[in-house]
Prior knowledge:
By secondary structure, the chain is α/β, with parallel strands linked by helices.
Amino acid sequence: MRVDRYLAVAAALWAVLCGAPAWAVSLRAGLMVDTGAPYTYAPDTPQASLYRSVLEQITRQSGIRFQVDYYPAPRIQQLFEVGKLDVEVGVHPSWRTLSPVGGFYTEPIGTVEYMLCFHPGQWRQVNHPADLKGWIVGTLHGLRYPEFDAAFSSGLLRRDDAMTENELISKLRLGRNNVAILDRHQAEWLSHQPADRRCEPGAGAGSSPVMLRIHPQFRQLVPVLNRAIRQLNAEGRLKAIFQRYH
């Protein structure tokens, strides 16, 4: 019952105040099963993803456990908004400005770097978005790309949203857009795939810090999580996880 979970949170906070680990809490976190490698993680895969590894480190540092469930990306946000998930992983506040549930954000757990990824045979040098004038650019629904926002708003470029990263990559492969803005790790991973699955990585397309988004019902745990994240960042452990996927 939800009352039991509130009691667990209260017990954890008391434990922290007394110098003990917050072992009593288990938060339900959603990880995506429809995203591109290396972020995909499902129970039957042998290697944890980047974000799964991050959660494991936070658990070791804070004592707060994460019960990981696997859903398509849009479903994760929906479940969070109705209180059936407690944590979204790897989110920036600007991506959730239209959400009816505000959420509370931890300190950054890492930085996502973006890169242009071209349909094979269409690579070009890009120094400014205007170099792609008139092109269709594949993007993820809800995400903002500060370096390209003005070009999208002015009509210089046409933004073509996909609901999931797999859909975004599929559109690029099918030639429905000329170039996609992907996470750098994904773009580099795709550049080594067979010809029918490959994309050609291009210029960088900015970056964004990402956080854990905590449901308001568990906002009391944000200071506990922040303390753990600060320590992990100070020791370079979270950065090492992100670097592992280059």
